Q: What sequence folds into this?
């Protein structure tokens, strides 16, 4: 892949990662609930989830989603259900010290949430199919080119949300976040629920 094409791919992936959405809300949620490490774990697992879809798109298996509408629909409703689950948990969350060391189980939960919010978003598959079609040549993709195309969005996504986690857990912001943790959790809950309703509404309108 030429450098100019790779830089174009980097720019598109960076803009996609920086776009506010449920992924950002999930990273913030775990930063607020369990601190910096949990936020970083969420970011890395989310990047892994993005990488899975990028890998599928490069292999061309993502086209199966178009051939099997029921699979696509199932992923859409699965993602909406997961957003509702996150909304309920966020609403029930209470304030607490963000500096307390978290348990091993909470790290596992952070990893699960980070991966799930990416993997249960079928639009990522469609996005990568549409994106990579502009960069994949007519002939078979080489191993090196395929690896670059998978690694680029994976690293960019994970790096961006790691930065978000570090900023969220910075010492200057901790007191402010702690004072407003319940309010933020409630706002995140409303955002999760709103996104879930939007996903379902688009299927019926």
A:
């Amino acid at each position: 892949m030429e450098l100019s094409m790779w830089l174009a791919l980097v720019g598109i992936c960076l803009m996609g990662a920086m776009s506010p959405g449920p992924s950002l809300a999930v990273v913030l949620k775990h930063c607020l609930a369990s601190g910096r490490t949990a936020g970083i774990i969420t970011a890395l697992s989310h990047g892994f989830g993005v990488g899975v879809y990028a890998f599928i798109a490069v292999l061309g298996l993502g086209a199966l989603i178009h051939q099997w509408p029921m699979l696509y629909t199932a992923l859409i409703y699965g993602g909406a259900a997961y957003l509702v689950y996150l909304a309920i948990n966020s609403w029930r969350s209470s304030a607490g010290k963000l500096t307390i060391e978290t348990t091993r189980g909470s790290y596992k939960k952070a990893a699960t949430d980070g991966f799930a919010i990416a993997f249960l978003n079928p639009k990522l598959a469609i996005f990568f199919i549409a994106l990579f079609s502009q960069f994949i040549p007519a002939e078979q993709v080489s191993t090196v080119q395929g690896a670059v195309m998978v690694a680029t969005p994976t690293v960019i996504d994970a790096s961006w949300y790691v930065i978000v986690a570090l900023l969220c857990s910075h010492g200057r912001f901790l007191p402010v976040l702690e004072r407003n943790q319940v309010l933020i959790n409630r706002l995140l809950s409303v955002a999760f629920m709103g996104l879930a309703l939007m996903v379902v509404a688009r299927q019926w309108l």
About this structure: The radius of gyration is 18 Å.
